[in-house]
Design a protein that fits this description.
Shape: rod-shaped
Strand order of the largest sheet: 1-2
Low-confidence stretches: none
Oligomer: single chain
Structural class: mainly alpha
Distance between the termini: 74 Å
Strand content: under 5%
Number of strands: 2
Radius of gyration: 33 Å
Number of domains: 2
Length: 102
């Protein structure tokens, strides 16, 4: 192979590499653009970002729950069942809500 043939082959190889590079670059740019658009849509759909708990569960944003007044038992045995049912329901509900939000 003489110098001219070698130079022509080098030029052909260079053009092939350049063409491949440009095609790959265009694909990468398109993928990045699509990813950004998907993220923008995702952010628009959820106006507040979600955190992730250390166990991997997605958490809702921190929300201040309203204060709940827990009933007091005043010693009337006839009122104990009502007190216990109300107290138990509230505590269970608050616990379940706290698991969901925190």
């Amino acid at each position: 192979m003489d110098d001219d043939d070698e130079m022509q082959q080098h030029e052909l190889d260079r053009e092939a590499v350049t063409e491949t590079y440009c095609e790959l670059r265009a694909r990468i740019d398109r993928i990045i653009s699509e990813d950004r658009q998907a993220r923008d849509v995702g952010l628009a759909e959820s106006h507040t970002p979600r955190e992730t708990h250390e166990n991997g569960n997605s958490l809702a944003p921190k929300i201040k729950l309203p204060t709940t007044e827990i009933p007091n038992f005043r010693g009337q045995i006839t009122e104990f069942r009502h007190f216990y049912d109300t107290f138990s329901s509230l505590i269970t509900l608050i616990y379940k809500i706290s698991l969901f939000f925190f």
